[in-house]
Each structure stands twice: as structure tokens, then as C-alpha cells.
Amino acid sequence: MTSGLRLRTALLLLSITLLLAGIASQIGKQSLDTLRHDLGSALVRDHARVVQQRIQSRIGLELALAQRLAASSTLRAWLQDEDDRQRRASFTAEAEGFRQAFTGRGYFVASERRRDFHYADEKTAGRLVHGYRLQEDKPDNAWYFTTVRQPHGYWINVDFDQALKVTNVWINAVARTGDDRVLGVVGTGIDLATFLKEMLSSQEAGITTMIVDREGNIVAHPDTSRMQFDLASAKDSEKNIHALLDASGSVLLRDLFSRSELQETASTFALNFEGETRLLAHAGIPGLGWNVITVLDTEHSSLLAPERISEILLAAGLLLAVLLIASTLGVDSLIIRPLLHLTESARSIAAGSYDIRLESQRSDELGELTRAFDHMAAQVRAHALRLEQQVAERTAALSAAHGKLTDSVRYASLIQSAILPDASLNERFPERHFVLWQPRDMVGGDLYFHRSGAQGELLGVIDCAGHGVPGACMTMIAHAALETALADTPWEAPEKILQRMDAIVRRVLPQEATRQQLATSIEIGLCHLAPGGDCLSFSGARIPLLWRDSEGIHRVRGDRRALNDRKPGNFSRQQLPLQPGQTFYLSTDGLLDQTGGEKGYAFGQSRLEAWIVEQGEHELAEQRQSLLDTLETYRAGQVQRDDIVVLAFRPTRPA
């Protein structure tokens, strides 16, 4: 019985492999011990350098930011008069940029005069809040008093903060006056778990990297149970690298630690570590007072040394040459040439020729494969013909459906545009208003409106949940609710108009959608101008009112609930006296949420207010173009995320 192709090929390659493996094992056995030491030295030294560079990059950047924050003039001014709210607000505004730049998205301030500890992070939304009061006799607060005594003006420690309930790598920088008087300590923290994963993690088996200070205390280790926390209050640290070494190794490392500020290069040694001979690499981190120690267990690591690569390549080359010649002679005859015929046939089928017939007479697996290939080619041809016909039919159907859908959406856009009050705004506020209306799709979920009558003027914006066709349907409901509310509700009470609209929308929309957490809410900002022109009343459902006058920019927050929220509620009203030169602005969140810039952040309320301060005195037509240009520049090619509506108006001409 003739052996199959698979068996014959396997026996041939197995025989050659066994022969060469025996020869290679004899050569490899003689070189293994030498290779292991040499390769281990290179590996552990390179790993220590990598960790050294990671720490210098990450901690160095965090320390530089903390020192810049400590040198801030607004910080110094506030710490010298902590009761001054304006100074505190100025510092908080400046520190927000630092908070966003810090890895942990937070910072803290500890004052020398009052010994108060303040912090700001993502949870506080950037607001500076009071944490606790520092006490000199309390061990948990020893970090502060240790920091202010540091000659370099900074200190890095690893500690669990009882008040904040976090374990961080803390970067502390001392804030001083021009005459070197201590004002306090500022800084930030990096989550310990994140720090250990990013700094000390290794994919190499048998490698352990730790960070120790000048006294040998272990301040960072992949196994946190071996770390010495809160060095400021610790008396005698038992978690010290010297306790893991014999006497000669301890003396050697003490000498290296004393010179680490002057030497950044990595050194490698074979030392007795925890009773076993291990390869250790040391790399100092000047400026931080830290030392990187990498330990390699050569028994549990596969190593490769650059100095021995030539020997391995020579031996491997000889083995490969023998294997290649023997394998080529056998495999070419049994496999390669038949497969080349199949490959050419497959290429012909790929090019559209389905009439290929190989008609092999072989009785092995390749013969069966060839006959199966012939059968497949015939099936592919029949299937391709059927697919071409089906694709043509489906393409025609999809084209017709797409045309109908596009026509429907365009008609909906025309209907939506018809309810916009451009004509009445141009009549009542000629050259004293602008509107920026940009639906994300052909139709959208945001609207603006204006009504004029004996009861005065009503202006506002509406932001319905969703965009596209669903959002447009929501705007029809909101528009109908507004019209109904205006017919039976006093205009001078905009909060009652919102309550009336809320009741109407709740009757129209099924409340099951709200319980299933479907987006059916409506946000609205509504302004009423009294007939006499001396007063403006505002009510907002999660939309604020901004205005600018000669004193700067002001804001009235809307109520923190939308129409058709989960539970009904009341809305409030704010009354503002009108003065010449005032310009009012209403905006949906589409503008505020638009991402862009170098880091992809949202446009945001603060950026809008800054634009109003800069452009608010210009004519409103110029302001509209400026806002368009500002938004387009900020987007920098990013797609529009949501519908955008901005309505600006001046009730009276400037005096």
C-alpha cells in the first residue's frame, strides 16, 4: 500500500530534524552557562535603564509642573491672604490648567499659615475644597513638615491619605515668598497601582524591579507588601534592601547610592540576594534621590547575549543549510510542484476564468485535493453568475429606496425650516440679533423661536433629545407644546410657560419611554421682554442665560431639570433690569460639547464666555461670523457631534 503524502513528508522531515537536534544539543550544552551570565547582564542592565528613563520622564514632568504651580504668583498672593475670595478664585482658575495637565487630574494645596489642606480633582469638578487641618503631632501629617525641611524644596513619597482614601505617589513642592519664607506645599499624586504597572512592569520572566531611596528603603515594588509607606513618620524601616543582601553587597550598594546623584549610567553585579546568587543592576535618578534596582533570577529567564549571537548564528546557519537542502529535495518533489499547478489555477479563477480543469490521476491527498478543486471551480462559476444577478437586482431596489428616503428627509427639513422665526426676528430686532443654527444632519433636534405681541417679546432656544429624524420629531412636539402654552399662559411668567409645556409633553409622550431610559427630555431657555422695555425675565430648563455689558460677562443658571424629566417639578424665574449696551446669549449644548483643539477637549462654557468677552462689543452680524470661524478653527476637521443653536440679541440699541 502506497504511503500517503502527509506520512511520507512527516517521516522525512522528522528524520532530518532528529539528526540535527542531536548535533545542536551537544553544542548548546557547552555554551549555555556562559551565555546565561552574559545575556543576563545585558538584559538586567537594559531593563534598569528603561525603568530609569520612564521614571525620569513621568516623575520629572510631574515635579516640574508642581514646581511651576508652587512658583505661581496667584498662589503666593492667596496663601498670604487666604480670606481673600478674589485671590482664591484667581488661583483656582489658573490651577485648573495644571490640574488637567497632571496625570492624576488633581492637585492639593497645604497652607503654612492656617495649616489647611485643600484639594481639587475630577470628583470635585475642579473646585478647590477643604480636606483637613494639618497637625504637627499627628503622624499622618508628617509628610508636610518633612517636605518644608527639604533643602531642594520638594519631596516625593508614597503614602495612603486617610482623608482622601487613596494610595498615591505624592509629588510635593514648597511654595515660598521672594525672601524665602515658606507659604505652604502644593503638588499632585499618581495612583500607586497605575505607577507600578507603568513603571515597574516587565514582560520578561525572572525580572523584578524596585525603587529605593538613598537609605535603601523600598519605596516602590511590584509586591506592595514589600514597600515602606509613609517614610516621613516611619522610625526604623524593616522594608529595606540592605536587609536582603549580605554584608559585602550592602556596602557596595551604599557606595553606589552615595554617588547616584553624579552618575546616571547603569552598573551590573552578581550579589547574594535573599540567600541566592542573583544579577543586580543599579541606575541612579539624579534630582529625585531614588535608585532603580533590577534583580534577575537566571534560573527562570531565557536569555540571549549580543556577544554570543555570532556563535548561535553560525551553528544555526549550518543546521539550517543541511535542513534546507534535505527538505527542499524531498518537499519539492512531493508537494511544491503539484501545489504550483493549483496556485496557477486559483489565480485564473480569481481573474474570472472558471473553465480550468486539472484532471489529476494521483491517488494521494494532492490528487484528491486537485479533483476537489476542479469541482469547486465549477460551483464557483455557477455561484458567481447567480450573485451577479442578485447584486444587480438588490442595487436597483436600494437605489430606489434611498431616493425615497432622501426626498422624505428633505421635505422634513423644509417643514422644520418653516417654523423658524427669521422673519419676525428681522422685523423686531433688525441688526440687533444673530442666529447660528447648524443641525448635525439634514434635520435636527434644536430650534430657536420668537413671538411678539401685546404682552411683550418672547425669545428662546430649544434642545430636544436626539438628532436627525428622531430629534426633528421631538421638535414638532416641543413646538406644538410651546404654541399651546403661549395661548393660555401669561407671557410675563416664563416659568409658568415651562411648567405648562412640561405638562403637555408628558401627556403627549408615553411615560414608558422615560421609564425605559429612552431620551425624550427637552431643554429650553426662555426670555421675556416687558412691553416697556425696562425688564427681562428668564426661565431655563438646563439652559443658562449669558449677557455682556460694560462691567463684563454675567450668567444666570437655568434650573437643573428638563421638560419631561423623570419626575414633574417647578421652574424658577429671574428678573433683570435692562440697560443700554447689553447683549444676551442663549446656546444649546451642541456648541459646548463640540470636541476639537490639540487634545480633543470639548469647546466648553469657559471658552464660550471668553469669546463673548472678546467679541461682545462688535456688531452682531460680525459676531456671528466670528463665532463660525472660531468653531471651525477649533473643530480642526473633527465631525460635528450634535445640533448647534446660538441666539444672541440686544433688547435696546447701545446708549
Gross geometry:
flat
Side by side, the strands of the main sheet go 3-2-1-6-5-4
Distance between the termini: 110 Å
Counting DSSP E segments of at least 2 residues, the number of strands comes to 23
Kindly estimate the percentage of residues that lie in beta strands according to DSSP: 15-25%
Largest β sheet strand count, sense and barrel closure = 6 strands, antiparallel
**Number of helical runs?**
15
What percentage of residues falls in helices of 4 or more residues? 40-55%
Instruction: List low-confidence stretches.
Output: none
The structural class is alpha+beta
What is the residue-averaged pLDDT?
84
Radius of gyration: 37 Å
Task: Write up this protein.
With 655 residues, this protein is α+β, with helices and mostly antiparallel strands. The chain is 45% helix and 22% strand. The chain is built from 15 helices and 23 strands. It has helices at residues 5-70, 73-80, 85-101, 142-148, 192-200, 247-259, 309-350, 365-418, 422-428, 468-488, 494-508, 511-515, 589-592, 604-615, 620-635, and strands spanning 107-111, 116-120, 129-133, 154-161, 166-176, 182-191, 207-213, 218-220, 267-273, 276-285, 290-296, 433-438, 446-453, 456-464, 522-529, 535-541, 545-549, 552-556, 574-577, 583-587, 595-596, 601-602, 644-649. The strands form 5 sheets. A 6-stranded antiparallel beta sheet has the order 3-2-1-6-5-4, with helices on both faces. The chain has a 5-stranded antiparallel beta sheet with strand order 8-7-11-10-9, sandwiched between helices. The chain is flat. 31% of the residues are buried. The model has no long low-confidence stretch (mean pLDDT 84).
